[in-house]
Amino acid sequence: MENLVDISKVQEFSETLKTNLEKVIVGKSETLQLVVIGLLSQGHLLIEDVPGVGKTMLARSLAKSLGCSFRRIQFTPDMLPSDVTGVSIFNQVSRDFEFRPGPLMAQIVLADEINRATPKTQAALLEAMEERQITVDGTTYLLPEPFMVMATQNPIEYEGTFPLPEAQLDRFLMKVKLGYPGLMDEIRVLELQQLKHPIQSLEAMISIEEVLKMQQEIRKVYAAPGIKRYIVEVVRATRESADVYLGSSPRGSLYLFRSSQARAAILGRDFVLPDDVKALAEPVLGHRMVVDPSARLRDISASLIISEVLKSLPVPGGDFSKN
Q: 17-38: per-residue pLDDT in tens?
C-alpha cells in the first residue's frame, strides 16, 4: 500500500489551487494547469509573453495561495550576483562576518525580466535552481522548501537584453505563455478590478506541508516501460532532426517523465498515458532546442519540429496501468 498514489488527494489539491488562482488569472485554465504541474514536479517555470498579461500576478497569486514566502527580483544590467544571493557583511559588534540573505532565499521567487541581467548575474541562479542551495564566500546555505523560480521575459523587446544561455534554459522545467485574454475574459478582468485588485483578498488555501506531500505523491505514479521508452525516443528525435542544431538534454527526458506523472495524477490516473507525454512535449522540450539558422530562415520553429516528431514516432500501445 505504501507505493500507491492517493489520486483523490492530488486531484483535490490541483482543483483547489487552480480555483484560487482563477480568482486573479482569468480564462487561462490550460496555463494554470501547467503551473500546477510545474509545482508538483518541483520544477521552475519560464514565462515568456508581452507586458501586461499577468505574468507577475501569476507568481504572486501562487505564493499567496500556498502561504509561501515570496520575493521579486527586478533584473537590470547593473545588478551583481550578490544582489541576488546575498552577501557577507562584517559586524563591528561581534567582530565577525555575518550572512545577509538576498531575495533568492524565498520559496517562490519571481525573476522579473531575467534576460536584462548580465550573464554573470544570471549564473547566480544556476546552483539554486538545480541543487536547491547557494554558496556565498565558501559557505553553502540550503534554500527553503518548496523552492520555485518563476522567471519572465519579453519576447518582443530585445534591446539591452542578454539571451539566456542553454545551461540556464535547461534548468527550467517548462516554458509557458499566458497570451491575451478573450473578449469576455477581458471584460471580466475589468469587473474584478473595478474596486480593488482581487489579489488583495486572496487567501492561502493549501499548507506548505500539503505541497511537499503532493510533490512526493506524484512520484509514485506508474510509468510502463513502453512509456519510458517513448519519452526517450521523443527526446532523442529532437537531437537527430536535420533542422536542429542542438537537441534536448537528458534532463529534458527526466522533466518530461516527471511532468507526465503529475499530469496523469491531476487528471485522475495512477499511470501515465502517451497522451500525457504528447501534451507536455512542446512546453517541456521546446526551449531546450536550438533550431538550425537555415531552418529558422524557412520559418521552422522548435514547436513545429516537436509536432513533426510526435507525428512520425509510433505511439506505444497496450495496457499502461500497473498490474
A: 999 999 999 989 999 999 999 9
Secondary structure letter of residue 222 according to DSSP = B
- Average pLDDT, stretch 28-54? 92
Q: CA–CA separation, 133 vs 127, rounded Å? A: 6
Report the amino acid identity of residue 61: S
Rounded Cα distance between 32 and 206, Å, is 16
Quickly count: other Cβ atoms within 10 Å of residue 7's Cβ. Answer: 19
The predicted model scores a pTM of: 0.91
Question: Does the pLDDT at position 160 exceed 90?
Answer: no
Q: Give the C-alpha separation, 51 to 59, whole Å.
A: 14
Q: What is the dihedral of CA 127, 131, 132, 137, to 10 degrees?
A: -50
3-state helix, strand, coil in the chain (%, to 5): 50, 15, 35
pLDDT, tens digit, for every residue of 190-246? 998 888 888 988 888 888 999 999 999 999 999 999 999 999 999 999 998 888 888
Output the furthest CA–CA distance in the chain (Å, rounded).
70
Q: Cell 527580483 sits at which residue? A: 73
In angstroms, the CA 253 to CA 235 distance is 6
Instruction: Give the whole-angstrom CA distance, residue 131 versus residue 142.
Output: 9
Distance of CA 143 to the CA centre of its chain: 17
Q: What are phi and psi of 216, to 5 degrees?
A: -80, -30
Q: Say which DSSP state 198 is in.
A: G
Give the separation between CA 108 and CA 47, rounded to whole angstroms.
Answer: 14
